[in-house]
Amino acid sequence: MPQSTAGVNTGSRIWLYILLAALVVAIALAIWFWRIAHLRPYIATSGAAIVALSGPALQVLSLSTWATRLLAGLIATLTAAGAWFATEDLQDSLSRSWRERARLAQEVRLLSEQRSQLSSRLTALTAATGAFIRERPNDQKQLFLLAAGQYQRTLYRTRQYWLILDFARVMLEVDPENGHGLYYAAEAHRHFARELQRSQATPNAADQDWFEMRDMLQKYLAASESHSDALTGAGRECYERAHGYCRERVAWANHLTALDALRVAAAASGEVKVESLLTAVRHADAELRLWPGGFEGAGTFPSSCQIPRIVARELTDLGRDHARADAVVAAHSAACSS
User: Fold this and answer.
1) Closest-CA residue to 273 (of 304, 310, 220)
2) CB 3.0-4.6 Å disulfide test: which of 15, 83, 174, 284 passes with 258?
3) Closest by Cα among 250, 274, 255, 254 to 264
4) DSSP assignment letter at 177
5) Which of 250, 235, 247, 239 is nearest to 283 (CA)?
6) pLDDT tens digit string along 231-256?
7) pTM score, two decimals?
8) Eight-state DSSP code of residue 36
9) C-alpha angle 206/278/179, rounded to 5°?
């Protein structure tokens, strides 16, 4: 039996009241839980679902025109409120982001200023300490350099490379050609360069340390020519000499220079590659003459005896003259095969 119009209207009103109550509760819950950041996506999704389903729901309920308009207006208000909350939250997030960015920028500026101040103070302290020791009587100065060289070995064994470099700078303030200072400064920069390469920082991040290492080694090799006993003695004897030069260390400096030249050649082309390869074989020849048999390889680093062979092969592949490399291989074949 068909229901009367009054019955339908009464039922519609009941559903209208239920929907109104549900919307009020939904709005209250949305406002309450909006403060919880990770719930906001769910609240926004629920609001969108309510808006999407509101049209079909109004048709199913067969509400009167005024009720339909009232409910539609309420839903539109809810949608606008949700958009306002979202916009306000976005604005708050942007404001917080800008404030955080400004704070971080200020911290970076302060840290940069502090770093600059510390660097200036360290440079001044190094220069002052070096000047003070340099003005002491020669026997005291030599005693300091001898003890400092021995201490550098301790720092190296404990891998304290920043201390090694700082200490080397003081030694070089006292004597710019001191072998301990030049050698250990080179080792420190070599360590920093390799660490930067392993960390895969910016492509050229290690270039400065490679340059500093190369500069220290070149100065060491050049200064060794003015020390007659630089061509005598094993590594341990370097630490018995204040000037820091001995045969094994000079050979090792040549070895490091040859390895560096190979590294440069691997990344170069054309004449730069050829010149780097020739530099490598020249220093390999020098180290093998000073220290027959040379030094063993380590990891990806070739041994002293392998360097001339690598250079000869590379020059052959490039179609360039490799007679010099072949001559070095032949000259040291006996020592390298023993």
Assistant:
1) 310
2) 284
3) 274
4) T
5) 250
6) 999 989 999 999 999 999 999 999 99
7) 0.68
8) S
9) 60
Phi, psi of 4 (to 5 degrees): -75, 160
8 A C-beta contact, residue 44 and residue 50: no
- Alpha carbons 128 and 121: distance in angstroms, whole number: 10
Query: And the tokens for 11?
Result: 């039922």
**Ordered alpha helix ranges (H), the chain:** 5-33, 40-61, 65-134, 138-157, 161-174, 179-198, 207-224, 235-238, 247-267, 270-290, 306-318, 323-331, 333-337
Q: Name the nearest CA neighbour of 284 among 310, 255, 313, 260.
A: 255
How far is the C-alpha of 304 from the C-alpha of 292, rounded, in Å? Answer: 9
User: Is the CA virtual torsion 309, 216, 298, 148 positive or negative?
Assistant: positive
Contact between residue 227 and residue 197 where contact means Cβ atoms under 8 Å apart: no
Q: Is 11 helix (H, G, I), strand (E, B) or coil?
A: helix
How confident is the model over 253-306, as pLDDT tens digits? 999 999 999 999 998 888 999 999 999 999 999 999 999 998 888 777 899 999
Q: Contact 106/95 with Cβ under 8 angstroms?
A: no
Quote the CA–CA distance of 150 and 132 in Å, as a whole number. 20
Closest CA to 308 of 253, 258, 256, 254: 258
Q: Token match 């309920």: residue? A: 61
Check the CA dihedral 122-127-131-133 and report its sign.
Answer: positive
pLDDT tens-place string over residues 96-131: 777 788 778 877 777 777 777 777 777 787 778 777
Alpha carbon of 198 to those of 157, 206, 210: distances in Å?
21, 10, 14
What is the tens place of the pLDDT at every residue in 139-187?
899 999 999 999 999 999 999 999 999 999 999 999 999 999 999 999 9
3-class DSSP state of 298: strand
The two structure tokens encoding residue 6: 């009054």
User: Tokens 């339909």 correspond to what residue?
Assistant: 68
What is the DSSP-derived secondary structure letter of residue 3?
P
Residue with tokens 């930067």: 196
